[in-house]
Each structure stands twice: as C-alpha cells, then as structure tokens.
Design goal:
single chain, 399 residues, alpha+beta, 5-stranded antiparallel beta sheet, 10 helices, 5 strands
Length: 399
Amino acid sequence: MSPNSDSILSQELSRRTALKALFGAASAAVLFGLPARARAAEATKETTDKLNAAQAQLDEVQAQLDSIASEYAALANKNAQTLSDIEGVQGQIDDTQTQIDEKKAELKKKRDDLSDRVSASYKSGGTNILSLLLASGSFEELVANAHYVEKINKSDRDAIEDIQTIQEELDAQKTELESQKADLEKLKDQQTAQMQDMQTKQQEVQAVLSGLSDDVKELMAQRDAEVLAATQAEEAARKAQEAAAAAAASNKNNSTSSGGSHASGAPQQNVGTGKQQAVVNACYSTPSPGLGWCAAWVTNVFRNAGVGYFGGNACDMFNAWCYSADRSTLKVGMIVADSSHPTTGIAGRLYGHVGIYVGGGIVMSNQGAITSKSLDSFISFFGGGSGVRWGWLGGVVLS
C-alpha cells in the first residue's frame, strides 16, 4: 500500500462508525458517574444542527472517495489486462523473429548450394552438363536429359522463391505485431496517466474529508461540553433541592440530620549475489515504519542495503518497475506488487501493496508489522484486482 494508506483505511472505511464510537467514548468519559436522570440534558439546537450538517457533508464526501476508489480499481484491472496483452504480443513477435531467422538461414543455404553448383560447373567448363547431354544415345534421350537439367534449375528457383515469399509474409506479420504492441504501449501510458490523475483527485478529496472530519470532531466536543454543562447544572439543582429538604426536616424535628444531601457516587470501571544478500539482510533488519507504509519500508530496505533510494507508493512502483508475472523470471531481491486490490478496502483499491521476494517462495512486506507470506498466499490475497507482478526496483538488476 501507499504511504499511510493503511491509516487511511482504518480511518476512512468506517469513519462514520468511528465517529459514533468517538462520541460514545467521550460521552461515557464525561457523563459516566452521573445519575440516569441527568442524562436527559441535551446540547443546544444550534450545535446539534451544525453537527448533523457536518456529518451529512462528511458522508457525501466519503461516498465520493468510495466512487473514486472503485473507478481506480476498475482502471487498474484494465491496465493489468493491457500489460498481459503486451506480454502476449511480444511473445508472438519473438516467435515470428525466430521463424524469420530460420527462413533467412534456409535461404542462405539454398543460395550457397546453388552458387557452389554453378561455380563448380563453370570451373569444369560446364563439362558435367555437357557430358550429360553428349552422352545421350538418341534424340529422345537428349530431350529427356535436357528436361532433367531444366527441372533441377527450376526446382532451385522455386525453392528460393518460396522461402523469399515466406520471409516477406513473416516480415509483414512482425510489422503488424509491432504496430499492435505500439498501440498497446500507448494505451498503457494513457491508463497510467488516468490512474495518476485519479490519485491526485483522491488526494484532494481526502484533504476535504480530513478537514470535515476535524470539523465533526470539534462539533462533537462542543456538543459533549454543552451536554456536560447542562447535566452538571441539573445535578447542582438536584443537590440544592435535597439540601433544602434536609434543612427543612432538621428544623422541623429540631435535630441535626446528615441524610438527604448525598449524591450518587460514580461507579468504577542467502541467496545469490552480494547485493541480493544485502537486500535480504536488510529485509530482516529494517523495522516497520508504521501501519500503512509498505512502500516506505521497501524504500528503507533498499537504502539500508546500499542499493539506492527509490520513492513512490506501491502502485507507482508497480506501474514503473513490475513487468512480469512469469514465475521463471522471479529473482531474489525483486519487488512484488499490485496496483489495486479489493481485499483491504479503499486503500487497497487506490494504492495496492508492495513487498520484496527473499527467496524460498517467501515475500516479506510491511503490514504494520513485517510479515512473511508464501508467494502463493501473497498472490491469493493481493492479486484479486490488477494482479501481482514483479521486477527490479529502479531498474537496478541485482543478480
């Protein structure tokens, strides 16, 4: 996930529930020891109306944020499909190039064979063919031998023409595939730009949401203060009435009484190259920077390992450096990431998650604490959206 994305998740997924819980806790703290009768006290209508309006606005902006997260997740899924399509087309290009190379080699051999035969015939003064013709015992045999010679020459020419035709077709096919790949690369760039725009919009909405949250908390505090003040006033009036009643009873009986004036008491409650090994060592020695900072942890690991500094959030790292989902290409020290997944809510859909492959089928990542998951488990949990891919962070090949 991106920096502080887990924190956003914990605050935003159930913000309204959290705010209600906050109010409940605050109310319990200030009103806990007071009699049930006193809890009838209320805040002013002005404060209550402001709080309700702020809460409604908060819910509206939260809905906008949810919508952005859903759109981003859908776009990330399309981007993942585009990446897969690019890989598929590149595979076809590679196969076609292999066929072209084979046909070129075959054509060269045919031409070399023909050249050798012509050269040998020239050096011998054409005696081989001439001898064949002169050796004919009859006119019919002469015609047959001449036809045989022409057939050999035509066979050579046809074979060369066939190979040239196939090579031209393969060249055309490769050109078409390269055009398809260029279109897909352009689409990928457009989708990446759209996702970046959506992240910017998300950050703007998040800032508004945070401001509204602060407003709601302040209004809650104001409401609680007003409720507390009203409750204390009611309690003071009740105590005064009890004191007056006790005094009257004492005067009437001409005796001192200590009863009737008490208030209710509050109840109580290794691995390859040195660089790869350095990254693995740093994975085990670098502490978690906190919940939500998965990309920051990856950055710290590579900096501590002496590889370099590479910033950005998880989806940035995914889009820039994770190019393969082929397990045969996975190497120790590669980052393993997704751009969007649904399993951790808004933050997961917007930012994805990133970890580091440490070998033995294990991916380490920061989820508040540093965790080690099998690659299968990592893919199963985080790969439900854009899919999981891997690559060398910063393009720095460690192996």
